[in-house]
Design goal:
This protein has one helix and nine strands, in the order αβββββββββ. Strand 1 and strand 2 form a beta hairpin. The chain is mainly beta. The protein is 5% helix and 38% strand. It has one domain: Nucleic acid-binding proteins (OB fold (Dihydrolipoamide Acetyltransferase, E2P)).
């Protein structure tokens, strides 16, 4: 495992946000949704999320997640992803969302 310094970690903007909507993303190479998330004072941002194995798109709105909001936008098929959705792979390699266990204001930075 590589180690990093505290200043390195402080550069990563891990923020809370609430999913506002989820849409199918048939153009993605791997099954994914397009999700729009409210990050409070940072505004709303879109991302692609390969979370179709564990989550139905209609169950995602209202769910609070953790995203990395300071990566540059990334083109995924015909879509521009504006942040990175965080999660962990299960035993099959399918993504389980990283989330907070109690509601906090949108846009809060991990401390």
């Amino acid at each position: 495992m590589n180690t990093i310094t505290w200043p390195d970690f402080e550069k990563v903007e891990l923020r809370t946000g609430t999913i506002l909507e989820a849409q199918d993303f048939p153009q993605a190479r791997k099954p994914a949704y397009k999700i729009r998330v409210d990050f409070g004072e940072l505004g709303t941002k879109w991302s692609s999320a390969q979370i179709t194995k564990h989550y139905r798109k209609e169950d995602l709105p209202g769910r609070q997640i953790i995203g990395v909001v300071n990566f540059p936008p990334k083109q995924i098929a015909n879509f521009m992803s504006e942040f990175l959705v965080t999660g962990f792979a299960d035993e099959n390699g399918d993504v389980v969302l990283a989330a907070v266990d109690k509601q906090v204001p949108n846009g809060q930075k991990l401390i």
